[in-house]
Amino acid sequence: MDTGLEAKVEVVRRFSRTYTRRIGVLRDGLLGTDLSLAEGRILFELAQRPERAAKSLAADLDLDAGYLSRLLRGFERRGLVRRRPDPADGRQSLLALTAAGGELYTLIDDRSRAEVASLIQRLAPADQDRLVQALDQAGSLLGDNRPGPAYVLRPHRPGDMGWIILRQTLLYAREYGWDERFEALVASITAQFIERYDHRRERCWIAERDGAIVGSIFLVRESDDVAKLRLLYVEASARGLGLGRHLVTECVAFARAAGYGRVILWTNSVLHAARHLYEQAGFRLVREEPHHSFGKDLTGQHWELEF
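The chain above was modelled as a monomer; its predicted structure follows.
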């Protein structure tokens, strides 16, 4: 091996050692569970679609078929996975997570997001962007040619607040008939966020799809122990992708990692899809009251999530 290549090899090996230590690959159990890293990856792959052929799962993970079969039998004994014959090929099985498997996946996924958020939140937003771009480029160079995600999340940039005000105003006017007083509320919230922004304990996530903004969510400091979720929205063109759930999950994971003991939010009863997402994330309705706002008679709702 020539000297130049050897030096490059050492850089890659050093990064691998540092990163595996930082994300806890060397610990017993995956993120506080009794799963191995391989079992956790299988759980992740099964959670990405309703059903999965065992043969394709082994190929995608580059796992020995016998080894994968043993791990799957363990999942079945624990009630995490169910299988049925593939109608297109009776020699093959289709695999799916059970409700218990889905719950375990959600637990691991939430803990993983919180751990990574804790790792990168110490970086300035610009450095976070540099890190994400570098890792994405590294994946491409090393042969990750799979289709990209349906959307990406990023921190806010100059100009984003104006776009959020515009799109939320138009969306709620079209779908619920709210008037310009809602625009004034959104403008006030976004202005306060920019003026008081604390990158250690507050965050705005912008969702992009093919370069266009398709959603956002904010987490702002209410007190030392309480954070507030604000201004969740998803464009109609991006609905059905799981984006709303992803935004709420990111928000909750960041709040937990930032040391808050509780997350609160205010919404209205007519926003059925958003309320369903909050319920799925573990929020509970604590009180509601009628009010007249944005030109409509509405029922305001206060929700909270305690850690």
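The chain has a mean pLDDT of 87.
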